[in-house]
């Protein structure tokens, strides 16, 4: 059986990689993928702790996070398509000014 701390270390490593991607990258698609990595690292910890404590609530929370993430991606991709049509760029620095 795999010990719990392996899952915690995996979740921390993925969370740090995702946080670095959000803070350091300038492409909006890479930032969105890094946010997905952050949320999936939290899901790993939810499921690992749920399995360790023999409780199914961690899996339920993970399913809710996955559903919210799917909705977030759908909205974000719609916004990105509109942004590319108007600005023709996906760099964060170029699209900081929102004008109506």
From TrEMBL:
GO biological process, one term: ATP synthesis coupled electron transport
Topology of this chain in the membrane: Multi-pass membrane protein
Bilayer-crossing regions: 6-24, 31-53, 59-84
This protein's UniProt keywords: Cell membrane, Membrane, NAD, Oxidoreductase, Quinone, Translocase, Transmembrane, Transmembrane helix, Transport, Ubiquinone
Cell membrane is among the record's keywords: yes
Substrates-to-products reaction catalysed: a quinone + NADH + 5 H(+)(in) = a quinol + NAD(+) + 4 H(+)(out)
GO cellular component, as recorded: NADH dehydrogenase complex; plasma membrane
Principal location listed in the UniProt entry: membrane
Domain of life: Bacteria
Record's keyword annotation contains Magnesium: no
MF GO annotations: NADH dehydrogenase (quinone) (non-electrogenic) activity; quinone binding
Compartments, record wording: Cell membrane; Membrane
Known EC number: 7.1.1.-
Annotated Pfam families: Oxidored_q2
Enzyme class: translocase
Task of the protein: NDH-1 shuttles electrons from NADH, via FMN and iron-sulfur (Fe-S) centers, to quinones in the respiratory chain. The immediate electron acceptor for the enzyme in this species is believed to be ubiquinone. Couples the redox reaction to proton translocation (for every two electrons transferred, four hydrogen ions are translocated across the cytoplasmic membrane), and thus conserves the redox energy in a proton gradient.
Family label: Belongs to the complex I subunit 4L family.
Quaternary organization: NDH-1 is composed of 14 different subunits. Subunits NuoA, H, J, K, L, M, N constitute the membrane sector of the complex.
HAMAP family reported for this sequence: NDH1_NuoK (MF_01456)
Protein name as it appears in the record: NADH-quinone oxidoreductase subunit K
Protein's organism: Rhizobium phaseoli
Originating gene: nuoK
């Amino acid at each position: 059986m795999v010990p719990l701390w392996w899952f915690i270390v995996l979740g921390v490593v993925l969370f740090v990689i995702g946080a670095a991607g959000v803070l350091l990258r300038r492409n909006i698609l890479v930032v969105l993928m890094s946010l997905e990595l952050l949320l999936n690292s939290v899901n790993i910890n939810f499921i690992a702790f749920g399995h360790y404590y023999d409780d199914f609530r961690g899996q339920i929370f993970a399913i809710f996070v996955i559903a919210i993430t799917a909705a977030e991606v759908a909205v974000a991709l719609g916004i990105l398509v509109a942004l590319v049509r108007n600005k023709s760029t996906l760099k964060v620095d170029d699209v900081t000014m929102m004008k109506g």
